Each structure stands twice: as structure tokens, then as C-alpha cells.
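Hi U.,

Before I forget, here's the chain from the pilot set. I'm dumping it here mostly so it's searchable later in email.
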Amino acid sequence: MKKVLGMGAALVDILANVSDEWIAAQGVQKGGMNMVDWPQMEKFLGALENPIRVPGGSTCNTMVGLSRLHGKAAFISKIGDDELGKLFQEHLKNNGVESKLGMSDVATGCVFSAVTPDAQRSMWTYLGASDFLGSDDFTPALYDDVGLLYAEGYRAFNGECFKKSFTLARSLGVETALDFSSFGVVEACRKLFDELFEEKMIDIIIANEDEAFAYAGVKEEAALEVLAKKAKVAVVKIGKRGALIAKDGVVTRVSAGAAKAIDTTGAGDLWASGFLYGYMNGWDMERSGNLGSIVSNEVVQVMGAQIPEEGWQRIYAQM
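Structure:
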């Protein structure tokens, strides 16, 4: 298979268990993503006791999963010259992901994931250095041996850079994939997404049920039908019930795993890694989607987005 180039934020995930009452007190919608500045992030972190710290970020999680499945993955973003940045570099190296990381004078970004008893996570993000990835970082040489550009919707807040990455990919014959990432991203960046859809710049769209509803105004099969008109492949993930995939006018439904979830952090990211592995190897949509479910089923059984070695061994056995 050709390489998948992931474009996303280089972030260190900081996870902690909280109550539903704590979420309500923050005045935000449960399950969403909220952007914060460094002072606000410091306030959160100062109130936590023994949080779990794991290098991540949505696209990074997907590229790590793809690499662990023995696919070829690279990741482009920016980090700071600090302890978290070094932790992030080691994470890519240890998981076989080709680093395209640039350096910034700004601190490495991080995400506070607050996990409630129902395993739902609400996130607060400080983008830090990753927010300084710019158009000039995208050159034709970056796409050597790349078959697919995969981008998280969060990157669309830097519209110029986001559009450059897709238009350059298209001009070089590289396929493209977009994960909507958050219903808030869909609402904030819809104009840019529609522009790229109109110009046929996106081949694959991946959304969960909230993101699909935010874009289409309808749910599940109806939302899938709307998204399928925008790209060659459209995916709507429907939580515990699996996912719906549309390609060439055919809708495929795949089931989710049966594991009891203790934390859904990274579930969508790892689903994408399995699906993209299958897609890049020419598998059909059912087989690709089922691998996505197998990988996702493992990550929801642990805190954070890192599947332990025994989990990967179960995945390999099912592949």
C-alpha cells in the first residue's frame, strides 16, 4: 500500500474521570470539543489529581493505529521545544509513524479529556505549537510515495493551510479524506468544507452521528445520503450500532464490537485507522468497516487512545 499522510494537531492527551455534575458546571454541551487558551488549560490541569498523559491528537491516533496494522503512515504538524514535544516525537518513532514534525517557539499543544461514568468524553483543547502549521509547510516533496492525505476537521480553522494541503494533493493525484472531528467544527467551518466539496477536493468523508446531523440536518441513512453526494465514499458512525458506509450508490452497514466501553477516547480515530488500512489495500467496504470496528472495540476497553499489546494481538488474530 502507499503511504497515508496525516495532517493534524500534535497534542498530548490528558485524561481524567469526572462526574456529570462537573460537566454541567462547565456550561458546555457534553461530548463536544472546546477551544481554550493556555491560562484556562493551566486552570484545568492544576485541579487534576494524577491525570493520565498520553501523546495523541485525532489524526496522530489514526496514523499510529494504521502503522500498528502494518500500514505506511506519516504525520505532519508542529511541536514545541519542550518535554511534551519530546514525548510526542518518541511516540511517533516507537509506533513506526514517519515524522514530518516542525518546531515552534510555542509550547506543545494538549487536550484535556474529561471522561464521565458513561464513558463519554468531553474535550478542551489548547492547540499550542500545532496551530502554527502553515501553507509553506506543504510542498510537492511532502507527498512523495503518498497515496492518501487524511485530515482532521480541526485543522480547517486555518483555512488557507487546510485548502492548500487538499489542492496540492489533488494536483499530484493523491486521494484525500476528511474526518469532520466535531459538530462544533462542522458548524464553524462549513463554508470551507462546502467549497472543497464543490471543487471535488475530498474523496472520503468520515463523520459520527452528531457531526453528520450538524452538516445534513437529518440523521443516519438520510445524513449518509447527503454526504454521499459530496464524495466518493461517505461514512456515518452510529456509536454502539456500528457504522453506515456509502460507495458507488451502495450502502453497507457494519456492526460495532460487543465490548463494554470504559472510555470512548480515540474510538473514532482508531475506527478510521482500520477502515483506511482496508481502503488502501483495496478491500471492499464491509471488510474495511469491520476492521475499523475490531480496532475501535479494543480501544474503548482502556483509558485513552493507546491499545495495549495484548489488544493488538487480538486484532491481528481477527484480521
